[in-house]
Amino acid sequence: MSAVASAPHPIEARGLVKRYDQLTAVDHVDLTVEAGTVYGYLGPNGAGKTTSIRMLLGLITPDEGTARLFGRDPLVEGAAALDGVAGFVEAPRFYPYLSARRNLELMAALDGGDAGDRIDDALATVDLTEREDDKVKGYSHGMRQRLGIAAALLRDPRLLLLDEPTTGLDPAGMRDMRQLVRRLAADGITVLLSSHLMTEVEELCDRLAIVRSGRVIYEGGLTDLLRSTGQRYRLRTTDDRRALAVAREQPGVEDPVQRADGLAFAADETVAGELSVALVEAGVAILALVPAAASLEELFFRLTEGDGLPA
Ligand SMILES: Nc1ncnc2c1ncn2[C@@H]1O[C@H](COP(=O)(O)OP(=O)(O)OP(=O)(O)O)[C@@H](O)[C@H]1O
Ligand SMILES: [Mg+2]
After folding, report:
1. Are residues 240 and 206 in the same domain?
2. Residue 141 to residue 214: CA distance in whole angstroms
3. Is residue 15 situated within a structural domain?
4. Could you tell me if residue 206 is inside a domain?
5. Which residue among 38, 51, 123, 124 is buried most deeply as judged by most CB within 10 Å?
6. Is 49 touching ligand 1 by the criterion CB < 6 Å?
7. Which residues contact 259 (CB under 8 A, 6 or more apart)?
8. How many domains would you assign to the chain?
9. CA gap 204, 40 in Å, rounded
10. Minimal CA–CA distance to 201: which of 186, 184, 187, 222?
11. Does residue 48 line the site of ligand 1, with CB under 6 A?
């Protein structure tokens, strides 16, 4: 080893597995999150996002594999491994009949140290100062999520793990939460954020892992992901049903699907030309055939519902 060993990554998970009976909820997940990044953990319902984050936070024990936070293993070092780490899974929990401030005071007392000194700042950061004396039971979902972040901030974290922090929020609540995540990242906090929204990950994250059925099916930067996809086309015809049948038979046409506004498929330019000839031969007239950039949302569906990575 060199004398100047590089600092350990905020998260380094290798071969994480969690099984529930026959079901493998998390299936050999490797994850490296570098300091100062916002990392997206993206997948549909049931993909294993919450289970993964639970393992990272040491809330459940993996059946196989290891998770290290700043080089420390929660299984070996217990609570000490969570020094500088905070977050919540699903929804944060509070005493409903107590005020937000009182809830934070109780948490700070449990955490010990100087957590109590951070309450004012934490409430201000999440924009709840004016409502700090209101009982949490009267809080909206968005306010509770923000209070969850405030609770995490009491720990003065260098790493925040947030499980779908915007799910269930209205558009304004989502916007506020995303701004908050951006602000925390700008303060130097490394963030791992799970989401089922590609657009959210696109907006917030430097890097992402896409998970399906417990497995990471893509890991990398967003630009690389977009680059890896083939050219998409949109097609409108006089008879889309017939056109879809023709497209399915045409060699080189990939992934033809019917959409509300016509057909979509992936192909290179030569193949698109050949398809247009085949359509005309089949008696289908082309109204529009336009190249379209694959939207990230579309890509997400292809990755999480299709056969895997695009060629
Ligand atoms: N305690 C448990 N007992 C049995 N099965 C579980 C348990 N926890 C999770 N699972 C199963 O593991 C799989 C992954 O669940 P998980 O909650 O991690 O998914 P998720 O990606 O967080 O989904 P969502 O987007 O709905 O929150 C699901 O099929 C779920 O039913
Ligand atoms: Mg979940």
Report:
1. no
2. 28
3. yes
4. yes
5. 38
6. yes
7. 234
8. 2
9. 8
10. 222
11. yes
- Token pair, residue 251, equals 């060699």
pLDDT (mean) for 58-73: 93
- Ligand 1 contact via 42 beta carbon (within 6 Å): no
Q: What ligand 1 atom has the least distance to the C-alpha of 44?
A: 25
Ligand positioned closest to the Cα atom of 29: 1
CB of 23 sitting under 6 A from ligand 1: yes
CATH number (domain holding residue 56): 3.40.50.300
The identity of residue 100, as a single letter, is A
The predicted pLDDT at position 3 comes to: 45
| Residues 105-142 pLDDT 10s | 999 998 888 999 999 999 999 999 999 999 999 999 99
Q: Give yes or no for residue 270 CB within 6 A of ligand 1.
A: no
Read off the tokens for 227: 């680059």
**Which residues contact residue 84 at a Cβ distance below 8 angstroms, ignoring those fewer than 6 apart?**
70, 155, 156, 157, 158, 159
Locate the ligand 1 atom nearest the alpha carbon of residue 49 and give its number: 21
Domain that holds residue 67: 11-221
The CB of 25 under 6 Å from ligand 1? The reply is yes
> Distance (Å, rounded) from C-alpha 311 to C-alpha 298?
15
Q: Percentage of the chain surpassing pLDDT 70?
A: 93
* 196 CB within 6 A, ligand 1: yes
In a shared domain, residues 198 and 263: no
**Cβ neighbours of 201 (radius 10 Å):** 24
The verdict on 215 and 123 lying in the same domain is yes
Over residues 137-195, the pLDDT tens digits come to 999 999 999 999 999 999 999 999 999 999 888 889 999 999 999 999 999 999 999 99
Residues 177 and 235 in one domain: no
**Distance (Å) from CA 167 to ligand 2 centroid:** 10
Q: Give CA–CA dist 21/233, Å, rounded.
A: 43
**43 CA from centroid of ligand 1 (Å):** 12
